[in-house]
Design goal:
It contains three helices and four strands. The chain has about 110 residues and is α+β, with helices and mostly antiparallel strands.
């Protein structure tokens, strides 16, 4: 069993890299290794990133993926979810109370 907190707490094994995230290039301190996780069907790539608020763990089911692949995919995914949440609040509800939304559409 891998304890990610112990892995992140070790001083050795950290590297620095420049990655294209969100709208620009970011310099990140990271640690990566391969691990086995049965629900994913075997070997996974684990990436620990040292952020100002603490470390974050990400994984990829493709063990051949690079750190850049993992971090850019995560950045793309979270930027999409952020955009969708803004879209829902501005466009879908249009200032209508949630209880009235379904009644106006004939669903209730």
């Amino acid at each position: 069993m891998i304890d990610l907190a112990k892995r992140a707490g070790q001083k050795r094994g950290w590297s620095w890299g420049c990655f294209d995230l969100y709208v620009g290039t970011a310099v990140k301190r990271y640690k990566t290794f391969l691990a086995t996780w049965r629900p994913a069907g075997g070997v996974i790539r684990v990436v620990l990133v040292d952020e100002p608020t603490g470390w974050r763990a990400y994984f990829c089911t493709d063990p051949a993926a690079t750190v850049a692949d993992v971090l850019t995919t995560i950045a793309d995914r979270f930027s999409l979810e952020k955009d969708q949440s803004n879209y829902t609040s501005r466009r879908r509800w249009r200032g209508v109370r949630a209880s009235d939304y379904h009644r106006r559409r004939g669903a209730a």
